[in-house]
Write a structure and sequence with these properties.
The chain is mainly α and 226 residues long. The chain is globular.
Length: 226
């Protein structure tokens, strides 16, 4: 593991060298002071760390979980953003066991900026590749006490467009719509709005026939009413 630790340490030194205090203050404020930041904007971060994404430099797939968890416990948010970009490089290599890492990323250092990418890009792709795992994980997440796992259950189809299982989405919303939590209600509205671009009439009918929160309803109909 020494080589993997050295990989993480090199990333750390690279990001530390790019730190900008003024930008970090702005970023912390935007994220409600929940995380520390180096103050590196996305394009600059990706440019600075690009060498660590090259196939010859990055870890083997079987070491991905070790590296990402090392990144995840570091205080500055840029480490988690790098972790997300790193996982994305392996999306075509996902096996059934990768869900353990994805769940870890969802329930640790949880906030919308990481959870939503894991939900849409990684979990969404995982269930396309392993559809027989969908029922187990969705049931588990919906019944959990984690709003972030619940939010993932709502949002994982965001990129599916016309391939969205709309009846499944409606079922999940019915199970979670009474939870008085901003991030759940916002996710409900977002998921419905996304599908309204495919079939607005279906979403209008669903909203009319179901008692949703004002936030979820407003978000759901934004595109339809624009």
């Amino acid at each position: 593991m020494q080589q993997l630790d050295s990989y993480v340490n090199e990333i750390k030194r690279t990001l530390e060298a790019k730190a900008n205090f003024d930008i970090s203050i702005q970023q912390k404020r935007y994220m409600r002071n929940k995380f520390e930041f180096f103050g590196i904007k996305a394009n600059s971060r990706r440019k600075a760390t690009g060498k660590f994404m090259k196939k010859a430099e990055r870890p083997e797939y079987y070491n991905l979980s070790y590296v990402v968890k090392k990144l995840w416990v570091l205080p500055e948010r840029e480490f988690q953003y790098f972790g997300l970009d790193l996982v994305e490089r392996y999306i075509d290599d996902f096996d059934r066991g990768i869900m353990e890492l994805l769940e870890y990323m969802i329930i640790n250092k949880s906030w919308w900026d990481t959870v939503d990418m894991v939900a849409k890009k990684f979990v969404g792709q995982y269930f396309i590749k392993f559809p027989n795992k969908k029922k187990y994980y969705l049931s588990k997440w919906i019944d959990s006490d984690s709003i972030w796992l619940q939010r993932t259950a709502i949002l994982f189809q965001l990129g599916y467009k016309e391939d969205t299982d709309i009846e499944l989405l409606f079922k999940i919303i019915h199970q979670l719509k009474d939870i008085d939590e901003f991030f759940i209600q916002k996710a409900i509205g977002w998921s419905l709005r996304q599908y309204s671009r495919v079939d607005g009439s279906v979403i209008v009918k669903f909203v009319e026939n179901n008692e949703l929160s004002s936030l979820a309803e407003r978000e759901a109909l934004k595109t339809v009413n624009s």
